[in-house]
Q: What sequence folds into this?
């Protein structure tokens, strides 16, 4: 599980605008006369992602995969592919940052009120659901309940009322210990908003952040803000304005490394094993360690001098091997930029 993924540059600031004072749709509002004539039903014909992302040898394998998977699952290419970084809290209260590992979502619009959801994480549980913005939700596989709730909220705001084909996939598993819901929420929201927004218009990130906070209140809003507004080599204080305040946080620039240390084994043992791993890491030269989420879990972020990385890993691995325990995983973390459209 060791590796480093380059951070993505930010896509720029979202359009400025004041917060809505009522249930004003976030999506585009039709203007002008209503066209007369038959209304098309079914998938909207779309042009593939530029240069056929699914088959472009130079593209990131994850983005090629989600583009191809949507086409394989639903019979047509995506109109947009978006990547959204995993995010984490810093040891300093109120600061968050993005990691250089993404979740990707591919989307294509429909007009027949149908939502078709798929994920390589659940290959046998793809589903076709009627998009009902209000009222009881239709029966859906457990993994699809959250994406469907998000799509309903987007439809109520004016995005994708006709339905969407959607496929998403992360680059990490839950075993890494980084929050998966927030980057997945943002990647899907951006992809769906993009294909239902006029060409050349960036989705309203701040509006989507507010929509996600309302529609999925169990999520970590600070992490979602990091996903949407992070910058490479910087941390974000998200509660200071529309895009938050950015401060320098670039371990590599000061000769340090940031790694995620995740323990394995039974859930009941994780807290004690994680504490032991941190103690061994500190003894070998680690500077600090803290949980990446709001609550302790199966992993910690460890900041250490680059020169002590091998020693820290060896000390932790030796202690666990000597006790016959599964050796923790180490994942290199680059401080990355915000979600972006993959071209």
A:
């Amino acid at each position: 599980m060791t590796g480093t993924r380059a951070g993505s540059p930010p896509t720029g600031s979202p359009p400025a605008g004041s917060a809505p004072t009522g249930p004003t749709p976030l999506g585009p509002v039709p203007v002008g006369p209503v066209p007369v004539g038959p209304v098309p039903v079914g998938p909207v014909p779309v042009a593939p992602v530029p240069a056929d992302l699914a088959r472009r040898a130079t593209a990131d394998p994850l983005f090629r995969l989600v583009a191809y998977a949507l086409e394989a699952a639903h019979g047509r290419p995506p109109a947009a592919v978006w990547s959204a970084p995993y995010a984490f809290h810093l040891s300093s209260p109120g600061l968050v940052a993005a990691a250089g590992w993404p979740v990707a979502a591919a989307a294509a619009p429909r007009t027949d009120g149908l939502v078709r959801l798929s994920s390589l994480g659940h290959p046998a549980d793809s589903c076709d659901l009627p998009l009902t913005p209000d009222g009881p939700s239709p029966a859906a596989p457990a993994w699809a309940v959250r994406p469907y709730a998000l799509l309903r909220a987007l439809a109520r705001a004016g995005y994708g009322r006709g339905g969407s084909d959607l496929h998403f996939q992360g680059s990490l598993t839950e075993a890494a210990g980084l929050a998966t819901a927030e980057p997945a929420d943002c990647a899907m929201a951006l992809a769906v908003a993009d294909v239902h927004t006029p060409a050349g218009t960036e989705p309203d990130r701040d509006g989507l952040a507010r929509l996600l906070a309302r529609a999925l209140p169990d999520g970590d809003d600070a992490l979602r803000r990091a996903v949407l507004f992070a910058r490479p080599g910087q941390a974000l204080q998200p509660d200071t304005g529309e895009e938050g305040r950015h401060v320098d946080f670039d371990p590599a620039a000061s000769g340090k490394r940031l790694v995620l240390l995740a323990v394995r084994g039974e859930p009941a043992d994780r807290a004690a094993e994680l504490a032991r791993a941190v103690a061994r890491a500190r003894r070998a030269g680690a500077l600090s360690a803290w949980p990446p989420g709001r609550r302790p879990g199966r992993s910690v972020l460890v900041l250490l001098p680059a020169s002590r990385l091998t020693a820290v890993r060896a000390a932790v691995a030796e202690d666990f091997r000597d006790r016959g325990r599964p050796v923790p995983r180490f994942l290199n973390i680059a401080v990355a930029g915000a979600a972006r459209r993959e071209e």
